[in-house]
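Section 3.1: Structural characterization of target chains.
Under the original work plan, the team committed to producing a structural model for every single-chain target entering the pipeline before any wet-lab resources were allocated. The record below documents one such target. The sequence was received from the expression subgroup and is listed exactly as submitted; it comprises 227 residues.
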Amino acid sequence: MPKRGTVIAIDGPVASGKTVVGKRLAEQLGYTFVDTGAIYRAVTLAVLRSGVPRDDEDAIVRVAEHTAVDITSPTVQDGRLYTVLLDGEDATWAVRSPEVEAHVSQVSRIPGVRQALLGKQRTLAARGRIVMVGRDVGTVVLPEADLKIFLVASTAVRARRRYQELRDRGQNASREDILQNLVERDKIDSERAIAPLKPAADAVIVDTDRLSINKVVAAIQQELDDE
């Protein structure tokens, strides 16, 4: 493995702050930022567009296997943290749609889908100097990452963050629907048989409920400095 701090894994539940914290940290370190959640969202969008039956796992896996997904630095200055390319198409905002939000956990819990995307994620990490965020990066994707962080936050705080995020993008949103969706996704993510959501044994737990983005990033920077 590269020296300490070269490969950083950040995990946590939906809306715990992984993406914005990971992006800010990567910028400060001069590292590449990869959001594995966006990869799963892109595949979910491809599945929805394909018209395959939602209960046909074999068909869904085939879509995952044959879908090209790439994440790059922002190509448009419209508030995005990165650009998501789905078979060459800019799908950055499409993968954040409510429909994708409602189905991504069901798609991502399919073992064949996770297996289809595992190699792609590890290939990105092999380049080094990377911050990768997701829900099983430290436990499954990159179990030998140099530093593993697990962010936590209460359901109420996470629902408020997601509501504000959608409102800021001009999308209609219901606090009650968002809260219910988070509860359901937490249950699916934590109880799935393959790669359940949980911190790695050697992960540093950071509670983001009362911390600003800058303070969370500073806490992670301190972990790097202490090594």
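The chain has a mean pLDDT of 90.
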